[in-house]
Structure formats: C-alpha cells, structure tokens
Amino acid sequence: MKHTPNLHRQQGLTLAELMVAMVIGMMIVMATYASLTVARQGFGTVNATSELRDNARFAIAIIQQMATQAGYKNDYNATYMQSSSDATGFNLGGASETVQFVHGHNSAIITGKNIVTTGNTIVNSSDILTLRNMTGQLTEANNWTDRTMVDCTGTRRDASSMIESHFYVAISNGEPTLMCKFNMDANAEPLLSGVETFQVLYGVNTAADTNTFNDTVASFQFLRADEITNNAMWRQVRSLRIGMVLRSAPGSGGEKTAQDYWPLGKAIGDDNNKFTSEADDRMRQVVTFTVQLRNNLNPPNLNASL
C-alpha cells in the first residue's frame, strides 16, 4: 500500500512576509515606471532634435532659393542698372521707378501693408529681409514664363512680373513664426513655426572705388540694415548672413532654465543679436548660414548692358 504524504494547506503569511512582498512589488512598479519615463523623455528629445534639424534645413533651403534668384532680370523687360553708382537695382520696362533687389529693416515687423519699426509687436528684435527678382520669359514675342521662378510661398509667377518676397517674424497661432509676404499683399503666409528671432547682416563691399572688382577682405564688411544708409551701399551688397533661434514644442527640453543665444555669433557687437529664452521646457537650436547673391557679383560700370 502506497504511503500518501500529508499535505499542509497554506495557513497565510506573517506580517513580516507580507510587508517584504509589498516592498518588493512596489520596487518593481517604481522601476518599471522610471524606465518608461526615461524612455519617453528620450524619445521626446530625439523627436524634438530631429524636428529642429528638419526645420533648420527647410528655412535654409527656402531663403537660399530666394537669395539665389535675387537680382535676376528678364532681358526682354528690364534693364539692369549698373551704369549708375546710385542705382537701386531694377528699371522695369524702361519706367522711371527703380527698386532694390535686396533690402532690409533692422528690428521691424510688417503689419498689413505697413513696415513697423517701433512698438511691442516686433518679435525679439527680429529683422525684415526683402528679396526681389523678375520671372523668366521664353521669347520676346510672347509673355510665356518658363515657370522656373517662384516666390517665397512656392507660387510660380507670370512672365514679366517682379517677384518680391518679404521674410519676417510674427506671432501666428500663439507661436513666433517665420512669415512670408509676396509683394506686400494683405495676407502673409506662415512658413515655419517656432522661429523666436530672425537676424540679418548684409555683406557689403565698402571699397571707395566701386568701378573695379575690389571685394577684398579689407573692403568687405557685414552691416545691419540701419547701417546701410543709401542706395549705392545697397547696390554693393554681395551676400547675406542669416541667424535664427528655433524652438521645439513644449515638454521636450527637460530643465526649465533661461539661456542666452547669439544667432549671429558672440563676436557680433549688436544688442539685437543676443536672445534670452524663457525658462521653459523647450529645446532650442541656433541656425547661422551665409548666402551669396549670385546675380550681383559684377561691380557697377563694368558692363552697363550686362
């Protein structure tokens, strides 16, 4: 006959055993929560960093494209004004009105169709950059455009028309946003949200003799818009240096501390160049780049007819 061992039923836990089990369970839960929190924060940081990089690439691409077009003339409908040292850039169809192919305003904003240089609507002393060019035309006998010239909104414009793109920062849906306005239209197009400041310096050939190609280091300076005092100096702008501070969405920056940023570099002695962020939990990135104005490499008077 097989012997059956006595089976003892569970009689419960002592208080010490129960407390130890509860502590171990709580430690497991807390470790799991901490691990998930760190993973979530890491994902948010990586996502915010990628978004800032994409935004920077987009801003650089669109401004570079407009700057590359700046100063382009349609041979059939415009005369490039190089014969006069005080020329402003274009003479449309032989008309007396002339406009500058590159222009700007220091610490300003566009409201409606007006340029405002004072008041609290200016976002962090941001600047206005204006770039102009004409559209291409296939033949002299018609007004067919070659459809290669676009404005800052991405719209292809008709032949014989002038494209005028204004870049500036304004508040849109509660966020500082890089805006684009075409030909001072009533409505502006938001290009990129989260641009806290937009600073522009203009690379100017300040040589006394503007009739020779003298773009040397000694005669080349980066100036603010308010330091370019006449049309002759605007005509000598050879490049643009752009500085911006981009910010991410809330909740991706970790510590809530205010920091100082210099979108154009600390070496630039300009009060508007220093930007102090709010003490929030956003990530920020400084974007600085230089664009050459390809259609303004010839000095005045070298070739009046171009």
From TrEMBL:
This is Type IV pilus assembly protein PilW. Keywords: Membrane, Transmembrane, Transmembrane helix. The chain crosses the membrane at residues 12-36. It comes from the Bacteria. GO terms for biological process: type IV pilus assembly. It comes from Lampropedia hyalina DSM 16112. The lineage of its organism: Bacteria, Pseudomonadati, Pseudomonadota, Betaproteobacteria, Burkholderiales. It holds the Pfam family N_methyl.
